[in-house]
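Please, structure for the following, as tokens.
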Amino acid sequence: MNNNTKMKIARPAFEVFEAFVDPEKIGNFWFSSSSERWTEGKAIKLRYEEYNAEGDIEVKEIVPGTKIAFEWDYGTMHRVTITFTPDEEGTTLVEVNEEGFTKDIDSIPLIVDNKGGWMYMLTCLKGYMEHGITTLRGALVH
């Protein structure tokens, strides 16, 4: 099963792409830190200081300005593909597709939780890219 989330960001695709792969930028909207620049074949350590959590992803594919694909482990491997589709107005449709959910009733809470997480991350990205807001990331309280 897949989980798909989309949002339009009023910035060029390459700038939005760079916000993800550049460890100096990702902390402004998503994780508090990234161990290094995201490149194909790299294992990247991501950290959330606010939640005292960290984990690794393996970057599977990078197409500069267009696509990022990585895998992370939720007990089973999940593949996340983020695409950046520009339009003629200089905005970018950012689409996150997560695959790897099992097709049973027990997966529903994880699918719903992850959908909310992707929507929140994209909202933080929009605030950062369009308005320079860096205080949204890490504001969710569990």
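The longest helix spans residues 108-131. The radius of gyration is 15 Å.
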